[in-house]
Amino acid sequence: MSGNEKTKRDITDIEAPFESELHSIKIKGVAKRNGLTTFLIGLVALFVAIMLLAFLPHSLYLVGVFALSASIVTMLIGWFKVREPVHSIELTKTHILYHHRHGKWSLEWSNIQRIDVPKVSHGLEQINLGMVGIKIKQYEPLLSSISPRLATNLLLEQRPLLLQNNQCVGGGCYSNTLIENDTFKTPEGKIIKGIPAMLANRMTKLRAGLGFDVFISVGELDRSSEDFVVLLRDCLSSVNSTFPD
What we know:
Blueprint: H1 3-15, E1 25-27, H2 35-55, H3 61-83, E2 89-91, E3 95-100, E4 103-108, E5 112-116, E6 119-122, E7 125-128, E8 131-136, H4 140-145, H5 148-157, H6 159-165, E9 183-185, E10 191-193, H7 195-210, E11 214-217, H8 225-242
Helix pairs in contact: 1-8, 2-3, 5-7
């Protein structure tokens, strides 16, 4: 099934049953796929590697060590896949819900201003960053929905975005933009402190550089970033037409 066909099917799903509070579109990211299979393959490979180390001649000892290392890495990859939430994103008639092993956040459709694929300039080219960007109207509702653990993880994950914006391709250079203030003042005058304030300041920098506040990696999607943008835009349009302000 093509991305456009899948998107049309999902839009039909979310439009039709708005009468049901429980209905939603659930997105299972590619990072979650084949987790148990990968772990089991690594486990089998581990036993094979142990047998190789036990029976191979000493001259081939490095072969067994390499096989043992590869099996352990495979098991770790499978384990991290298994630990990921079953669904990374859930679209309901009121919210976008983002699920992560470190926590979750929720974003109301009414708080969304713009959805697109972020790009950076590289010479004369515009390079797709392989993610979906969302520009929001107010920070406080999102900050109140996110756990400190996930907020901390996002601050770490978003460092390459800041470095990309500063033309530091590869993320190997240092930048003062990586340091966030732990106090943030909302447009309404409210003072936020701690990890939420640091995340708010980070979102402000990313908005200034890339035009978006919230970013979802393509690895957490079941389709391309462009197709997911189409889905979110159509859902937003459907929600706005069904529940106008």
